[in-house]
Design a protein that fits this description.
With about 290 residues, the chain is mainly β. Helix content is about 0%, strand content about 55%. It folds into two domains: about 140 residues, no CATH class; about 140 residues, no CATH class. Strands 12, 13, 14, 15, 16, 17, 18, 19 and 20 form a nine-stranded antiparallel sheet that branches. Strands 4-5-8-7 form a four-stranded antiparallel sheet, with no helix packed on it. β7 and β8 form a beta hairpin. It starts with 5 loop residues before the first strand and ends in a 9-residue tail after the last strand.
Length: about 290
């Protein structure tokens, strides 16, 4: 058995184990505007809806917010305040993380493998290969809860297609603008209470599904009911005071230009898997921090 060090809190909870990877807080702050992504429109009803060439960019854009770091190895990002992770990009040693449905009021907490970059009195541990495994000068990642997204409510089946009023059972739906100059989004949210204090959340993955204004009639050439307009949605989670929210909203680059709560049915929601939110408490974390 290799040599190692395990440290426990007074309540018996494991604080860190030098034989395991330990994550530390490397940066926190507010998201900032990164880029506008244009929404799409179907150029003609005669064009096949399943081909990219049938769509063109519109003048309506989604303001995508995010932040950048250098030297990311195995990043985990938690957010407090509205937002859904919609990807990242890398240029050289700089990684930029993107969020849809967010604003400059959304907080982020970026964790990654601990680094030997801070000076001062403290404890630093290494594995047998010499790699740093723990640095007491950093704030360690402490997951306080793992919460699965609620399933959707019982569907109404139309022409063999399951239609849902909301993507999460018990969710409420409203038209929302995340920034004053942006378009309206059809947003469905449900709050999961945890306890006192402020929390931040990170989802392991997001689902993509559809939403539209359905009238129950068959649409020629497709298995779907007739629609006035349709759009793509995505889901995620974010932290708040007292708990977390699961949220679904218009996906980046969706084909629906004007989003309202008149879109009454969600469809093609994957029900064989649900996103899981990893949750941390932010009360004792420095903010902003770099």
């Amino acid at each position: 058995m290799s040599a190692g060090l395990k440290v426990y809190k007074e309540n018996g909870q494991l604080l860190f184990d030098t034989e395991k990877i330990t994550y530390g807080l490397l940066k926190s702050g507010y998201l900032s505007f990164q880029v506008n992504w244009p929404r799409l429109y179907h150029r003609s009803a005669q064009l096949p809806p399943n081909e990219g060439s049938s769509y063109a960019e519109s003048s309506i854009t989604d303001a995508v917010h995010g932040f950048s770091v250098t030297g990311a190895v195995a990043p985990i990002v938690f957010i407090t305040g509205s937002g859904i992770s919609c990807g990242s990009s890398k240029s050289g040693d700089t990684t930029t993380f993107y969020f849809i449905g967010a604003s400059p009021s959304t907080k982020f907490y970026y964790f990654d493998t601990m680094r030997n970059t801070l000076n001062g009195a403290g404890l630093k541990c290494y594995d047998e290969s010499g790699a740093l495994t723990f640095n007491s000068l950093q704030y360690p990642l402490n997951i306080v809860a793992r919460i699965n997204a609620p399933p959707p409510p019982t569907p109404t089946v139309i022409n063999g297609i399951a239609m849902y009023g909301v993507p999460f059972a018990g969710a409420t739906k409203q038209a929302t603008r995340f920034i004053s100059s942006g378009p309206y989004y059809c947003v469905a949210r449900i709050f999961i209470a945890i306890g006192a204090g402020e929390y931040a959340a990170s989802t392991t993955f997001s689902r993509s599904f559809g939403q539209g204004i359905m009238d129950g009639m068959s649409f020629p050439g497709t298995p779907f009911p007739a629609y006035a307009s349709m759009q793509a949605h995505m889901d995620g989670a974010y932290g708040a005071t007292g708990g977390i929210y699961f949220m679904a909203c218009d996906a980046a680059r969706t084909t629906m230009i004007y989003s309202t709560t008149a879109a009454n049915s969600y469809f093609d929601i994957p029900t064989d898997r649900y996103p899981q939110a990893l949750v941390i408490k932010t009360d004792n974390l420095p903010f902003p921090f770099n």
